[in-house]
Specification:
By secondary structure, this protein is α/β, with parallel strands linked by helices. The strands form two sheets. It has a three-stranded parallel beta sheet with strand order 3-4-5. The protein has a single domain, classed as Alpha-Beta Barrel (TIM Barrel), CATH 3.20.20.70. The radius of gyration is 15 Å and the shape is globular. Helices cover 37% and strands 17% of the residues.
Length: 155
């Protein structure tokens, strides 16, 4: 399958950035199915395994700035009705599963962290709907994976 994918068939707010060779509104993505979500988790783990084999001393899972894992965290983009949608505990699930699989893939060989953000490069005003309580759930869930660091950014 080709094309833009996301947690749900909901286009991100804002405009594509010319810096990334985009223009105009974001396209409406196709919602990922369960098999594709499993493939994505494996893809992150495979990439980390290759980074470790190449001699890197750490990897950072990119879950910020409006990219795929961030879209799963974003309430208005994630309209799923399965274990990956709904409340924040479900919306953070994919990011936590990715970190878990990456940690399993590289063992204790290298440091593993995750980058997350509230705002998006396409939507500087977005904030987590649940405020501090939602942030606490996100950070606690990701910390419980055993990640070596959480890298938070505004955008």
């Amino acid at each position: 399958r080709q094309g833009t994918v996301g947690p749900s068939a909901v286009a991100p707010r804002g405009e594509q950035l010319s810096f990334y060779r985009g223009s105009g509104p974001y396209p409406t993505p196709r919602a990922l199915d369960a098999r594709e979500i499993a493939d994505i988790r494996r893809g992150f783990a495979d990439a980390a395994r290759r980074a470790a084999a190449a001699g890197f001393d750490g990897v950072e899972v990119h879950g910020a700035n409006g990219y795929l894992l961030d879209q799963f965290l974003t309430d208005y983009l994630n309209q799923r009705e399965d274990g990956y949608g709904g409340g924040v505990e479900n919306r953070v699930r994919l990011a936590a599963e990715v970190v878990d699989e990456v940690l399993q893939a590289v063992g204790s060989e290298i440091a593993v962290g995750i980058r997350i953000s509230q705002s998006k490069v396409s939507d500087f005003h977005h904030r987590w709907a649940g405020g501090i309580e939602e942030a606490e759930t996100i950070f606690t869930t990701l910390a419980r994976t055993g990640a070596h660091f959480l890298h938070t950014t505004e955008y």
